[in-house]
Specification:
The complex is a heterodimer of chains A (398) and B (140). By secondary structure, chain A is of the alpha/beta class. Chain A folds into two domains: 26-285, Aspartate Aminotransferase, domain 2, CATH 3.40.640; 287-396, Aspartate Aminotransferase, domain 1 (Alpha-Beta Complex), CATH 3.90.1150. Chain A is built from 14 helices and 15 strands. Chain A has helices at residues 26-38, 49-69, 83-98, 117-126, 143-149, 172-180, 201-204, 229-233, 270-286, 288-306, 333-342, 358-361, 377-387, 390-396, and strands spanning 14-15, 77-80, 104-107, 129-132, 154-160, 185-189, 208-212, 223-227, 245-248, 254-256, 312-314, 323-328, 345-346, 348-350, 366-370. Chain B has one domain (3-139): Sufe protein. Chain: A, CATH 3.90.1010. Chain B has helices spanning 3-15, 64-77, 82-96, 119-139, and strands at residues 29-34, 41-49, 52-61. The longest helix of chain B has 21 residues, at 119-139. The N and C termini of chain B lie far apart (35 Å). Classes of the chains: A alpha/beta (398), B alpha+beta (140). Chain A binds chain B through residues 331-335, 338, 349-351, 364-365, 394-395, 397-398, and chain B through 7, 10-11, 14, 38-40, 61-65, 67-68, 120-121.
């Protein structure tokens, strides 16, 4: 769908690394350029027309994001540099003050590094304990395993909405309902889920959500931290400086601004935020449900073809997103990626920043194809054709 | 050496590398060497006796270029004195960087003589040499 909107696709590249980052449509590129060419003043300095225009666009993007994830209040949308930044703010700005030694944090072994290491650091600092919800045979999180993992000490469950290697979707709504009955907070890493389906933070009753702009047709270096207003109110900034203080004097008397400014110290990524707003408008015009359906169909099409190739081992036969992880028998994943690169096919090889997953799936690295709505069946056919002859891969990979 | 022969040598050393052995053995100096940008990760083990490399083995996981390169490195460096080995490594490094080098001492390692044209694979070929160089320089 919509291929003509993406200038990079005109180069003939077959881009199947959308889990890493997505391509940008012309309208997003233009929107960013427009800011730099026509009104590149700073935000929140409304003394002149140009700056006023920046504020309108910047705060307009906040409203676009609010509507997109159906947050109740605009102040619940904090612009960050991306999911990693958002998760670090959640962990060190909120949970570091909230958790005590002996409290338990539940994650899984298929989480991305950004939803693991900050918690590990908290474990070191506070003596809080990171524990794992067991995954089932398809590497899914089931409610049964969630309830098994919860103890009276569990204070927070932090999960990806969709994981980046397996592509399984977590039952977030059921989890939040179950967790909230037990006074447990739920954090959702939305990096791989928000770009690919409708996300309604009120319906899902999520406490904190992190997402990245560049994985949803937006620019790099911009993301969102969503938190319920009452929780963000008690979050302490991890960064202090300009734009977030009301006043301060030489005697260390400091007054901070209200949300959201209090959590957005320094000149923000203005072009990025405006570009993200445009990207969301673009995705909404296509329709998130349509995007989800298209990706699922395309994935099924690819799986049906891959499964018939005897030397290909698919790691995640079951998945909900557009992610396909596989290996070619006896060939190191990276060599396959190099081979495909010779034919202008971009795939990712490695452990995909989920380094504790290897014990679960039994392989240390995989080739990952991650699809988006602009990928096509013809592209899949082309890749299948390149993969079906193992001798050819062996011959051409070096 | 023609392209087909090079490819065969690389593949043979990748599929059946010399001295791949699990675990740490006594009497060996160990160095882990990995590529930041990818997942190549090798442990190199060297046994030195009387200033001479008596044995080398490796374990870990790496791509075809790194794995074949460690295999080729191993059979070329065993039996060399530390000075000879460092000289060999220096020549290999020059070749990888596309600089002037002494082809006559490198033996089958010259299969990588065109790898400087592929930026993303240069590091793969050099990876095991980076590891062993650390061991040898420490020993000196």
């Amino acid at each position: 769908m919509n291929r003509s909107d993406f200038p990079l696709l005109k180069t003939g590249v077959i881009y199947l690394d959308n889990g890493a980052t997505t391509l940008k449509p012309q309208c997003v590129i233009d929107k960013i350029t427009e800011y730099y060419q026509e009104y590149s003043a700073n935000a929140h300095r409304g003394d002149y027309d140009l700056s006023f225009k920046v504020d309108e666009a910047y705060e307009g993007a906040r409203e676009i994001v609010r509507k997109f994830i159906n947050a109740r209040y605009k102040e619940e949308i904090i612009f960050t540099s991306g999911t990693t930044d958002s998760l670090n703010m959640i962990v060190f700005g909120f949970f570091k003050r909230f958790l005590e030694s002996g409290d338990e944090v539940l994650i899984t072994k298929s989480e991305h590094a950004s939803n693991v290491i900050p918690w590990f650091m908290l474990e070191r600092e506070l003596g809080a304990k990171v524990k794992y919800i067991e995954l089932d045979d398809n590497h899914y999180v089931t409610m049964e395993n969630v309830s098994k993992a919860i103890t009276p000490n569990t204070k927070v469950i932090s999960l990806a909405g969709i994981t980046n290697v397996i592509g399984d979707e977590r039952p977030i709504k059921e989890i939040t309902e179950y967790a909230h009955e037990r006074n447990i907070f739920v954090v959702v890493d939305g990096a791989q889920s928000v770009p690919h389906r409708d996300t309604d933070v009120q319906d899902l009753d999520i406490d904190f959500l992190a997402l990245s702009g560049h994985k949803m047709c937006g620019p790099t270096g911009v993301g969102v931290l969503y938190g319920k207003k009452e929780l963000l109110e008690s979050m302490v900034p991890v960064r202090y400086g300009g734009g977030m203080n009301e006043s301060f004097d030489s005697a260390n008397e400091v007054y901070l601004k209200e949300l959201p400014a209090r959590l957005e110290a320094g000149t923000p990524n203005i072009a990025g935020v405006i570009g993200l707003g445009e990207a969301i408008k673009y995705l909404e015009a296509i329709g998130m449900d349509k995007i989800k359906e298209y990706e699922c169909d395309l994935r099924r099409y690819a799986i049906d073809k891959l499964i018939s190739i005897p030397h290909i081992d698919i790691i995640n036969l079951e998945a909900d997103g557009g992610i396909i992880s596989f290996n070619v028998d006896d060939i190191f994943s990276q060599d396959v990626a190099y081979y495909l690169n010779k034919y202008h096919v971009c795939v990712r090889a490695g452990n995909h920043c989920a380094k504790i997953l290897k014990g679960e799936v039994g392989v240390t690295s995989t080739i990952r194809m991650s699809l988006y709505f602009y990928n096509t069946k013809e592209e899949i056919d082309y890749v299948i054709d390149l993969l079906k002859d193992k001798e050819r891969i062996l011959k051409e990979m070096i | 050496m023609d392209e087909e022969t090079k490819r065969e040598i690389i593949l043979e050393n990748y599929m059946h590398p010399d001295n791949r052995r699990d675990g740490d053995q006594e009497g060996y100096l160990k160095e882990n060497t990995n590529n930041e940008s990818c997942i190549d990760n090798l442990n190199i083990y060297v046994k030195i006796n009387n200033n001479t490399i008596e044995d080398i083995y490796f374990n870990g996981e790496a791509c075809a270029i790194s794995t074949s390169s460690v295999s080729i490195m191993i059979h070329n460096l065993i039996g060399k004195t530390i000075k000879e080995a460092l000289d060999y490594i220096d020549n290999f490094e020059k070749m990888i960087e596309g600089k002037e080098y002494d082809e006559s001492i490198l033996n089958d390692a010259i299969v990588y003589n065109e790898i400087h044209k592929q930026n993303n694979r240069k590091n793969c070929a050099y990876l095991p040499y980076r590891g062993i160089k650390k061991i040898l320089e420490k020993y000196l």
